[in-house]
Amino acid sequence: MPSASSSSRYLLDPSKHDLLADALGDTPETVITIHHLRRRWCHAYVAGSPTRFDGAIVQERFRPGEPAAFGSDPEVLWELLQDVRGWDCVLVSAACAQALGEIITAKTGMPVRYYGDITYTLSQPPLVFHSEAVRQLTLGDVDVLESAPPDLQGRSFFGSPQALLTEGIAAGAFVANQFVSIARTAARSERHTDLGVYTAEAWRGRGFSTAASAIVARRVQETGRTPVWSTGEDNHPSQRVAQKLGFTEVSRATYVIPDKRL
User: What is the CATH number of the domain that holds 61?
Assistant: First the structure.
């Protein structure tokens, strides 16, 4: 990770977001952040130069409460957090989490808790899981997505269902003409594509997410990119889907979560 001598912190001009994206490097852990930086769909707070920084925090437009922090100095990250509005937790490297949490408690009096986030990648063709209910979505399915519940729309990371089906890849399950499950590309960089899945609660446990994700992962690999899967440390159903498809764990990060109720 880049480093620099101590310098002032500031909100990075969107015209320089590409510089920060380049400095972060295209990895499984940065694909979501790069996706938002390239599209100017975030605020970026930097200490130092965007090309060689002491620390950086990227706050996505669609998930402002969960910014991602980059850098190894917890004091710098704490200083940057002073400028970030509306955050509830911050994702940092596992090595930095404990020290940042201790600083937050010392400075604010708030206790913190920690929650692990696991990143997987798929380096081989996904295993095939077939379901008669599952198929790849096309532009002809825009109306289906637009009328679906928010969790099934997959709009946030591409802006709209039409953008998702134009720029990304999606597959879904239909039961008696009811749209009940989706797997889609959630974020994309030059080398990686992050996948997201959701199945309506009444239809879980039927293999729809696995079958849809297999379609999307295969299509992603056809673009020359590596599929990425990230999930919480206690989201065992999501972990099982990833492992069924052949994804392997590559890293862990940690959410530092202050208890702001106290």
Answer: 3.40.630
- Is position 235 within any domain? yes
d(C-alpha 45, C-alpha 56), whole Å: 6
- Distance between CA 93 and CA 78 in Å, rounded? 14
* Cα separation, 144 vs 67, whole angstroms: 31
Say whether 118 sits in a helix, a strand or coil. strand
Domain tally, the chain: 2
- Residue 139: helix, strand or coil by DSSP? helix
Q: Which domain range does residue 110 map to?
A: 9-116
Residue 251 backbone dihedrals phi, psi, to 5 degrees:
-165, 165
Burial string for 183-207 (b: 16+ CB within 10 Å, else e) reads bbbbbbbebbbbbbbbbbeeeeebb
Question: Rounded to the nearest 5°, which phi and psi values hold at 75?
Answer: -65, -45
Q: d(Cα 100, Cα 108) in Å, to the nearest integer?
A: 12
Cα–Cα–Cα angle for 101, 195, 92, rounded to 5 degrees: 15
What is the token pair recorded at 218? 């295969």
Using one digit for the tens of pLDDT, what is the confidence trace for 205-262? 999 999 999 999 999 999 999 999 999 999 999 999 999 999 999 999 999 999 986 5
pLDDT in tens, 2-29: 444 446 899 999 999 999 999 999 999 9
List strands edge to edge, sheet with 68-70.
9-11, 42-49, 52-60, 68-70, 90-93, 248-258, 112-121, 226-232, 192-199, 178-188, 170-175, 134-136
